[in-house]
Amino acid sequence: MKKTILLLLIMVFTLSTFFGATLTVGIRYFTEHYILGNLAALLLEEHGFNVVKRDGLHALPSREGLITGQIDVLAEYTGTAWATYLGQEEMITDPDELFKKVKELDAKNGVVWLDRINVNNTYALAIRQEDYEKYGFETLSDLVAYWNEHPTEFVAGVDHEFYERPDGFFAFAEHYGLDIPESQVLTMQTGLTYEALSNNKIDIAMVFTTDPQILKYNLHVLEDDKNFWPYYHISFIVRKDVLDKYPEIEEILRPLTLYLNEDILIRLNYRVDVEGLEPEVVAREYLEGLGLID
């Protein structure tokens, strides 16, 4: 009898340990990361984990939190990890190769990169839809070929950082062979480029490729056909010791790789930034729509 009771107690303890396991999901301070963090948290909760969300973080503190064990799961960008955390300067123009190298290097830090999500949140240049229909520009090379022949026809709008940074506007211009006067490039506060483009104050705007303002203002993003800007593909990263203990995390988060893409993430961002919904609400409704949570 005592042996039976002991076995039952062990079983109860084991089950409570599993179903009571707590994971900390790190969430950075911008909309996209709030959505990604809540997507991960909801899926983990659906599969029996208790989840603590540490939100409002900046990039370096969130990374440090993962390395030191304060954070277990975090959405990360390949370009950020490659240049900022891993200190690499080589420009890699193949997103799969970049992901592979980041994954290999970060393994030495006890960090496991799960599947790469088909979302690249990097810099880009955009034009109004009516100008796309007028000129037919598909790529940055198309734009540059025309712009070099008509150097004063277009005015570009960029934020102050993009104007000055080493992978910013003038580095792009050199890479693509664009030769225009500096007077044709205006600087403004981050985010105002969209409104300025919509109001015809500028003709070309610096954007981020998953920004919902692209959808709001019906802009056409030009393809970076010469691969100037780094890739910032998203992946969830997990500490190795955590994944060794709970290997099911990888399968639990795999649907985000299968179902998320740039267009979908732009729309999710739009629901938060433009329609004013809470990130957790947007994440929950998306997962419920896919039948991934109840």
Automatic annotation (TrEMBL):
SUPFAM superfamilies the UniProt entry points to: Periplasmic binding protein-like II
Entry-linked Pfam families: OpuAC
Start and end residues of each ABC-type glycine betaine transport system substrate-binding domain: 22-288
An annotated GO cellular component: ATP-binding cassette (ABC) transporter complex
Superkingdom to which the source organism belongs: Bacteria
Alphabetized GO MF terms: transmembrane transporter activity
Protein name per Swiss-Prot or TrEMBL: Glycine/betaine ABC transporter substrate-binding protein
Native source species: Petrotoga mexicana DSM 14811
